[in-house]
Amino acid sequence: MASVSSHPSTSREQDDVQLFTPRTGARTLTKLALTAALIAGGLATASPAHAAGFERGPAPTDALLEAARGPFTVATTSVSSLVLGFGGGTIYYPTDTSQGTFGAIAISPGYTARWSSLSWLGPRIASHGFVVIGIETNTLYDQPSSRGRQLLAALDYLVEDSSLTVRSRIDSSRLAVAGHSMGGGGTLEAADDRPSLQAAVPIAPWNTDKTWPGVQVPTMIIGGENDSIAPVATHSQLFYESIPSSSEKAYLELNGASHFFPQTTNTTMAKSMVAWLKRFVDDDTRYEQFLCPPPSGLAIEEYRHTCPSS
To answer: What is the pTM of this model?
Structure first.
């Protein structure tokens, strides 16, 4: 990847993008070449959203959601640490310009961790039709409240920064947050602070605040049965129970999982997470079948839910 100039007046994206395709892996294109491809593909004539929500991609199946990549080819671009409000990161986005704009998700790593600890999630989620920004935090030791503010700052950057090439691909009304550990605690903070968000996914969340009666954002909490750092009995379950039943919510507990289950590829987590984001960020009711009736299997210890309302 090309390096980013440290001069404040320069663009804060890197000059190259990395393309991930479902079959061929990664290859690098310059922005100039990518821009030409977008023009040839008719970016200016992107089709409007479907009448029933914002359907993106083919009808979902178990096989599609359990695959390492979804139906969209994904490109990446880096964000410099010179941005305001968070510590930079990586953006993943679909290269398809024929289906209109996409919802966007900001994801935070946990305490002392970098985005690289969760980076498998970037292309995985983006390949289902989302723009994903995996953030670096201002410091490795930022607490949940700070991580929540940084998640919101990253979303604001995506939709407001005029220097960002991918900005035109994003529907600013369809935004979501997610994060691991203190990043999961920050996800709850962000959802509480900004009720206009469309979805939140705290993963093995840690927070000293155990009650979230003000959260209105559809929230899926994913915990690990054997988590000894943020035990589900004193974290994930309490968070879930405190969110009012008038809000859409779900609690997925993974059988035998430790606190660090999101740091390696986890198909059960990814499948439920994508289904939740598709249902609430895209308002795509085709994905309700993966949420209600509740999913089951050897990988799932427990699942609680309110069942999405169509």
So the answer is: 0.84
